[in-house]
Amino acid sequence: MENSRLEMNRILRSGGVRFDGYQTGAYRLSAEEVLSILEPMVSEERQQRIMDVIAERTYSIASVVEGLTNTGNVSAVMRTSEGLGFQGFHVIKNDVKFKKSVRTSQGAHKWLDVSIWENTLECTTHLKTQGYQIVVTHLDAGAKPLSEIDLTIPTAMVFGNEKFGVSEGMLAAADFTAILPSPGFVQSYNISVAAAMSLFAAHDQRIKRFGQNGDLSESDQTRLKADFYMRSVNHSEDILKRHLGIF
């Protein structure tokens, strides 16, 4: 349980500006410079693995969790997002007090761009500005089957509180509310299952339309490659600082 609490603290601290080079104080190295310094320390097998992962990465699908209280559920959605190659992950806190869980993200947050938002309006305003449609899993009179919504355009997939669902503010910002197929007696799924089904549906649509999930620009590929190299090399920050002559 304690490990879960500590991991959630790490996830919340990991939010911030996307990696775009290494900076400490007044010193800065570009992503390209980080790559040139660290590449000799990354095995060929690891380099290839990183390139294979980056080739299937996209920012076109963003995962959003709003007001989740169970740290295990946040971790589960994070693992699914990372596993399917969806790089952008958003956590809306809304004054939530997180409950402990035995489940962890298994380090998935290290490989994602995690943004932490204090409230729903901040997040939805950002997403709209960035050109995302907002799709919320929510049962209401206007809800459409998820299969009828175009998920091949930039889409933010939103998953709400375990008990109360998404907020009224999120519903007001949503372009679509969506329902998942449920032909059995069960009327709803727990949040981790609903997220897995929804995100896989988005991945499946993208594969069928584009033949692949990945669509990063060259600059984003370079930026992520440098970020992943830093996370793959032991004491990478110390190495970069020595290169800068800091110590």
Description:
The protein has 247 residues and is an alpha/beta fold. The protein has a single domain (2-8, 58-228), classed as Alpha/beta knot. It is 43% helix and 17% strand. It has nine helices and nine strands. The protein has a seven-stranded parallel beta sheet with strand order 5-4-3-8-6-9-7, sandwiched between helices. Strands 1-2 form a two-stranded antiparallel ribbon. Strand 1 and strand 2 (27-29) form a beta hairpin. Helix 2 (31-38) crosses helix 8, helix 3 (44-55) packs across helix 8 and helix 4 (71-84) packs parallel to helix 7.
Topology:
Layout: H1 2-14, E1 22-24, E2 27-29, H2 31-38, H3 44-55, E3 58-66, H4 71-84, E4 86-92, E5 113-117, H5 120-129, E6 133-137, E7 144-145, E8 155-159, H6 168-173, E9 176-179, H7 191-210, H8 218-232, H9 236-244
Parallel strand pairs: 3-4, 3-8, 4-5, 6-8, 6-9, 7-9
Antiparallel strand pairs: 1-2
Helix pairs in contact: 2-8, 3-8, 4-7
Uncertain runs are: 101-105
CATH T-level topology: Alpha/beta knot
The structural class is: alpha/beta
Gyration radius (Cα, Å) is 19 Å
How many strand segments?
9
Q: Estimate percent helicity.
A: 40-55%
Quaternary state of the chains: single chain
The number of helical segments is 9
Main sheet properties = 7 strands, parallel
End-to-end Cα distance, whole Å, is: 38 Å
Strand ordering within the main sheet: 5-4-3-8-6-9-7
Counted up, domains total 1
N-to-C series of helices and strands: HEEHHEHEEHEEEHEHHH
Q: What would the principal axes of the Cα set say about the shape?
A: elongated
Please, what is the average pLDDT? 88
Assigned CATH superfamily: SPOUT methyltransferase, trefoil knot domain
